[in-house]
C-alpha cells in the first residue's frame, strides 16, 4: 500500500492507512455495518422470500486542510558551496518536505475537531483521529466523547473534540478491554500507536513476555520499531509515534482509515523578493474514518 509518507518510523499512522481522492473541500463518504449473525437463518423448501430490512448507512465527512511550508534562499547562499550540500535551496526544500509530512502526522493523530472555515479569515481544518472515536473510547473520569454535527446517529463531521478526563495509569487490563470492544464491534485492531513513554510502559505489562512471538534467538520480533503483542484477538503492533497525543493510546484497524487528497504535495514558485528565491510546498488533504467502531482509544493515560 503506497503512502503519502515514506518513513514509517516518523509517520507510522499515515504510512499504515490507505489513500483516496477528495473531490471537494468537504469530502463525504458513507459507513455501514453488517447485520448480526443469525444462527436461525432457515427457510422451508419453495418458500416465498420477503425483503429484509437493513440498517441504513450513515453519511459522514471531513474538511480538507491546506498545509504549507515556505522556503526562501538568498542568491549568495545558492552561489556558495555549503560544506558539500550543493544547492542550498534544493536542500531546504527537501527538509521542508519532511517537515510537512510530520505536520500531517501530528494533525491526523490528534484530538482536533473539523473547522469549515470561511474562505477569507478562518482556515479549514480537518478532524484528527481522536476526534472521531466514540464507540470504543475508554476515558478517565470526566472525559467526554467528541460530538458529531449530525447528532447521536453519528452522521456529519466532528464539531467538538473529545474532552479530557482524569488521568489514570496505562495498564494491560485497559488495553485488553478496548481490544475486546473493537473486536466485538467488528474491527480487527492490529496497531496501538502511543508516545514513546506510553510504549515503554506497555513493555512492562506483566503478561507481555509470554505474549510475544519469539524468534530463534529468543528476542521479541521487531517490525519497523514495533513490538508484536499477541492479544486474544490477534497480533498487535506497539508503535511509538513522536507526534501523537502524549496521554492516549490510539488502537486502530488501518483498513478503516485513509488520507483523502484534494491537492497532492507539490512546489509552487512565489514572487521573488530582492536577492532571494522563494518557493512554497503545499498540499490539501483530509482524514477519512471509514468506520470509527473498527478502532478505539484509551484516553487520559499516564505512564507508570
From TrEMBL:
InterPro entries: SU10_MCP. Pfam families: SU10_MCP. This is Phage major head protein. It comes from Zymomonas mobilis subsp. mobilis (strain ATCC 31821 / ZM4 / CP4).
